[in-house]
Automatic annotation (TrEMBL):
Identification of the protein by name: Autoinducer binding domain-containing protein
Taxonomic source organism: Halomonas salifodinae
Keywords assigned: DNA-binding, Transcription, Transcription regulation
PANTHER family per UniProt: DNA-BINDING TRANSCRIPTIONAL ACTIVATOR DEVR_DOSR, HTH LUXR-TYPE DOMAIN-CONTAINING PROTEIN
Every HTH luxR-type domain range: 178-243
The keyword Cell division appears for this protein: no
SUPFAM superfamilies the UniProt entry points to: C-terminal effector domain of the bipartite response regulators, Pheromone-binding domain of LuxR-like quorum-sensing transcription factors
PROSITE patterns linked to this entry: HTH_LUXR_1, HTH_LUXR_2
Length: 245
């Protein structure tokens, strides 16, 4: 479905966006983050949203960061069985930077996700992908019920605002404890991984960095855990895909 773009700017939306950016700069908790975004969206007639972040391609990602006001039971079930790996909306977000309505996904959905989400009032939607270096990406999703005839118009009338809000939300997303913060590399881990990528052995890396070979192996093991890999070569490949090195 083509996006019915707005034909002129909306000064009210600019004020709302300015307020949202100001609010986002305060290192918000997850609840406050959701509250700020919900408040901005409600002023343009959109009530339901979810921000999703993956550190690599959907099928390779062990978990997904999901923040929003979708029903908690649906989010729990979605994460519990890793539906991000087969969700056609997430798959489209991963491979294209172009915003899209979910109508385009219905004909290719063989996962049954839309049937499952419909019982939670998530039947129609619009998504905005935001790509990072490597394979990492975020995506903002707005949803509604099937009978909502105002949804497409609301997206069109406020397209610039929604697009800007999504990028602000992506940039200022809270780093959830035990997830993204634990998945980032320490300085020493990054150094070890870079030398592995350069073809150096553990003993050579130890000499270069001035540490013991045992310490290098410790960092290598930590890397494999963080990158869900069975060996250091797979960890290196994962890190390159994710833009970490």
């Amino acid at each position: 479905m083509p996006i019915p773009y707005e034909t002129s700017g909306n000064s009210c939306n600019k004020e709302v966006l300015s307020e949202l950016v100001h609010g986002m700069q305060n290192n918000l908790s997850e609840n406050d983050y959701v509250s700020v975004i919900r408040s901005g969206l409600e002023r343009v007639g959109i009530s339901s949203f979810s921000y999703v972040h993956l550190g690599c391609s959907p099928r390779e990602a062990k978990e997904a960061t999901i923040i929003g006001n979708y029903p908690s039971e649906w989010v729990h079930n979605y994460k519990e069985i890793s539906l991000h790996k087969i969700d056609p909306v997430i798959a489209m977000s991963a491979c294209s930077p172009k915003p899209f309505f979910w109508d385009e996904m219905f004909s290719v959905d063989d996962s049954g996700i839309f049937n499952m989400s419909s019982s939670y009032g998530i039947e129609r939607g619009f998504s905005i992908p935001m790509h990072e270096p490597g394979y990492a990406f975020g995506s903002m999703h707005f949803s509604t019920k099937k009978e909502d005839q105002e949804f497409v118009g609301a997206i069109g009338r406020n397209y610039s605002f929604i697009l800007s809000l999504s990028f602000v939300a992506h940039h200022y997303r809270p780093i959830l404890e035990g997830f993204e913060s634990n998945n980032s590399l320490t300085k020493r881990e990054a150094e070890c991984l870079q030398w592995v990528a350069a073809g150096k052995t553990y003993s050579e890396i130890a000499m270069i960095l001035g540490i013991s070979e045992r310490t290098v192996k410790f960092h290598a093991k930590s890397l494999m855990v963080k990158l869900d890999s069975v060996n250091i070569k797979q960890a290196m490949s994962q890190a390159i895909r994710m833009g970490w090195i």
